Amino acid sequence: MNKTVNQKAWFLILPVLVLVAFSAVIPLMTVVNYSVQDTFGNNQFFWAGLDWFRDMLHSDRMWNALGRQLMFSGIILAIEIPLGIYVALNMPKSGFWSSFCLVLMSLPLLIPWNVVGTIWQIFGRVDIGLLGHTLAALGIEYNYTQNSLDAWVTVIVMDVWHWTSLVALLAFAGLRSIPDAYYQAAKIDQASRWAVFRYIELPKMAGVLMIAILLRFMDSFMIYTEPFVVTGGGPGNATTFLSIDLVKMALGQFDLGPAAAFSLMYFLVILVISWVFYTVMTTLDKREGN
Amino acid sequence: MADIATPVVAGEGDMTIEKPRRAARRYRPSGSAIVMALYLLFLMLPIYWLLNMSLKTNNEILGSFSLWPRDLTLANYAKILTDSSWYMGYVNSLIYVVMNTVISLAVALPAAYAFSRYSFMGDKHLFFWLLTNRMAPPAVFALPFFQLYSSIGLFDTHIAVALAHCLFNVPLAVWILEGFMRGVPKEIDETAYIDGYSFPAFFIKIFTPLIASGIGVAAFFCFMFSWVELLLSRTLTSVDAKPIAATMTRTVGAAGVDWGVLAAAGVLTILPGALVIYFVRNYIAKGFALGRV
Question: Which pLDDT band holds residue A160 (cuts at 50, 70, 90)?
Fold first, then answer.
């Protein structure tokens, strides 16, 4: 849509600006403030320059957490995106069953995150959980509180359970926007099922899939509650992702300086990667608009 | 991109290319149906298990392993609904969630209108900057929020949590509403101004009814995201405004975990979403995608 140039529109934005400034900018400035100061307690602070940033860049703890985080986000994206597309392709197109699937699939998305954790904590327990009990009955040794591999598998399956539907719903919305004529043309050309997917459905879904990847990347990168409830970051530090480590540092040990430096770098990484996704997304949007 | 709100009649032109397959579908279950059934089973099993446990006594949970409650009991639910320290958790959550929804919509409506109708200095940057707040990890904000709200005397109040959740809900609401408003032709605005409507009168009498579904969807998602969030709401409260999600940790006591009550509390937190999901089913993708579908 061609928009009118009107600088007075700023007045309409003003309430949002004031609110977001209060709830985002002020707290962020506090973080910046802490990141360049050190304290001996008693609320006496002194200038520490960029020491904390230097410390954090040389800290194994942060690099390990970042490594685990990247691996986690990579694995869940690699599973959820293809699986979500596959589910979307198999969804009923309209009528009662379509609504039925939409409603049931949305259900996990609307469950409070700590309850998601609780559900899987219970589900995976060997003594009272269906999953743990079944695996034990099959003779598979499984214990997510002791074995790091089991903990990883549990956290990943939980995330797939929780969020694959989001990818599927977005892909489904993309599929529904494809006009019938495209399929008819493909039929006349006797295109194979794969060709239809590769040359019609996938390009048409590209826009929504970028959104799905952006959202899943962002949200998995700041995941906290679900793994915290299930594993508490353990066994050892096996599932301590960035947010869990940060909360431990800031609210647990009250290491304000390092935690603040950590926060800023963490936020920066998310911003940079999201900006890349966002740019690709808007470019795709424009191309489709023409 | 076509609005998913208007269900495109894609049903007739089914995905299947060859005709024979469609005829065969009547007699045996198709591959798609099997895939969907398996996927839905995978989604529902853990939820069923929670429901199953909430209807059992602790003795049965720990003593025997059964796929359905042998000794059906509603005692776990009764305990939550009669103990004020339990049900106040729900009340507290509802209060701050409703406050947050109202605040978010009130500030987002004019802003979304501005973004959808006008171009002005820095509009694109501002729009992206709003999105960055949705990307901000709550863990980064937990401590500064705690200090900010403590210093102005709002710690452990509902409004503190409601304002904190604006961090991600205001951008969400702006983006969703902007998506819906773009679908309303600009000619409607112009005609109304020619007819002599002032901006507020036009906005309330003409524009708001046109995007009523958008407002509903935005409200639903603000409600939802505020309801599911735990880290910030737990950090900002201690007693008076403690959310249900944090109350659930109470089940871990000296005598072990009270699994039945924990499961019942979990089931009760799923209910609000489950009750209204049917009404927003066609917009759910749009809402989660911040209005970009």
Answer: very high
Pick the CATH number of B81-288 from 3.40.50.2300, 1.10.3720.10, 1.20.1640.10, 1.10.530.10: 1.10.3720.10
Q: Out of B114, B136, B140, name the one closest to residue A13 (CB).
A: B114
Q: Read off the tokens for A191.
A: 């295109």
| A278·B140 Cβ contact <8 A | no
Q: Is A39 helix (H, G, I), strand (E, B) or coil?
A: strand
Type of residue numbered A195: A
Across chain A, the runs of DSSP E, i.e. the strands, are 4-5, 37-39, 45-47
Residue B28, pLDDT > 70, answer: no
pLDDT in tens, B55-66: 988 888 887 777
Contacts of B171 in chain A (CB under 8 A): 20
Chain A CB within 8 Å of residue B65 CB: yes
Q: What is the mean pLDDT of residues B200-229?
A: 90
CB of A90 within 8 Å of a chain B CB? The answer is yes
Q: Flag whether residue A155 sits within 8 Å of chain B, measured between CB atoms.
A: no
Per-residue pLDDT reduced to its tens digit, B104-120: 999 999 999 999 888 88
φ, ψ (nearest 5 deg) of residue B154: -105, 5
Fold of A59-289: MetI-like fold (1.10.3720)
Q: Are A116 and A158 in contact (CB under 8 A)?
A: yes
- pLDDT tens sequence across A91-141: 888 888 888 999 999 899 889 888 899 899 888 888 888 888 888 888 888
Q: Please provide residue A171's backbone torsions phi and psi, each rounded to the nearest 5 degrees.
A: -65, -40
Residue A194 burial (10 A CB sphere; 0-12, 13-18, 19+): exposed
What are the boundaries of each domain within chain A?
Answer: 59-289
Measure in Å the smallest separation between the Cα of A274 and chain B Cα atoms. Answer: 8
Nearest CA in chain A to B231: A225
The rounded distance, in Å, linking the Cα atoms of A225 and B44 is 21
Whether the CB of A251 is below 8 Å from some CB of chain B: the reply is yes
Q: Give the C-alpha separation, B22 to B28, whole Å.
A: 10
Other beta carbons within 10 Å of A258: 23
Whether A39 has a pLDDT exceeding 60, the answer reads yes
Mean pLDDT of B202-221: 90
User: Are B137 and A86 inside 8 Å of each other by CB?
Assistant: no
